[in-house]
Amino acid sequence: MSRLKFLLLFCFAYPVMAIAQRATRDFEIEMPKEKVPGSLYHSIEYIDSRPDTSNMGIVQLGAFNKKARVVPVIPFDRQLKKLLDVLAGGEQGNDTLLFQLRQLSFAEITGAMSEKGYCYLRAALYHKKEDAYRFVNEIDTVLLVKSMDVTKALFRNGSKLLAGFIADNLLKPSSGEIIYSGTEVAGIDSVEKRKLNVYNVDAYAEGVYKSYESFASQAPDHVNMEVTVKRDTISSLKVQREDGKMEKIKSKDLYAVVYRGKIFIATDYGYYPVEKINDDFLFTGKAKVAASAGDMIAAGVFFGIIGSLIAENSANATFEMKIDHINGGFIRLREVKSY
Question: What are 220-243's pLDDT values in tens digits?
């Protein structure tokens, strides 16, 4: 190929590749037909507390399943205001509702005969009164949709999930028992962590933890154990049974181990040392990706591991991960390349 032809081909192909890498798909909330007469709220405010605000996940487009990031064309706060107006239908009170979005992620998996779409929604509602925010309700769930062409159905059902969450709470007053300042709402992660023992101790309770709940409360399920360490991590572990005998236990059956003051997270691939940095527990390792909703331990586990690159087939790659303080899931932060 001559240099001129190569340059012409490159000049043509580069913009096409760049456009493909930047491909996006709009998401707009479908307005419901049902009304909520007598809504307590006449206006809605919005705070985006998602770890990544650049997109709402990734869907697949066309016959070749080209990946596209979900990026709303109409700003999400404007969509929420329109949604409230449609739901209330002009019959609403005088109060203000605050919608805090903590996660909204769409993702798709292509199977042999069909596609599976997932929508993960984590959000909270507050009744705003002067400078105080009174907790109303929250949602933390995953929606599963199966179809031959799942994107439209996924967006439609995701819209229903979001609109339904708001509609179900327009007649619900705040209890008044949980009140936050604006600063506390903006830093809600820190507020929640202050209620968990593991985020507020200098020394961790020695032992074996079978669940995130026991780890978060620092109440080990086993304290009598035999640990073998190789290359700075746990290579084998035995715990004492009720009859006094020591029994070997697999990492996939545990959540974490604290040994000699050090935390080790337990996965299907073994144990990984954990560090606490800036009020977060971080580790570098592998984690198996669940392929169906039935395999999910929690919503955060599924979307934390898969992240927005669900179709990259990188289930066995190594990542820097953060423990989700709400459900103990592993939030994938970045891939660690091995050379």
Answer: 999 999 999 999 999 999 999 989
Cα separation, 112 vs 99, in Å, equals: 39
- What are the helix and strand counts (H, E) for the chain? 7, 19
**Pairing mode, if any, of strands 66-70 and 24-25?**
parallel
Q: Write out pLDDT tens, residues 204-217.
A: 999 999 999 999 99
Q: What is the DSSP string of 3-16?
A: HHHHHHHHHHHHHH
DSSP assignment letter at 217: H
226 contacts 238 by C-beta, under 8 angstroms: yes
Helix (H) or strand (E) holding 333: strand 330-335
User: What is the DSSP secondary structure assignment for residue 327, as one 8-state letter?
Assistant: T
- Domains in the chain: ranges and CATH: 17-192 (3.40.50), 203-261 (no CATH), 274-339 (no CATH)
Q: Look at the pTM and tell me if it is higher than 0.70.
A: yes
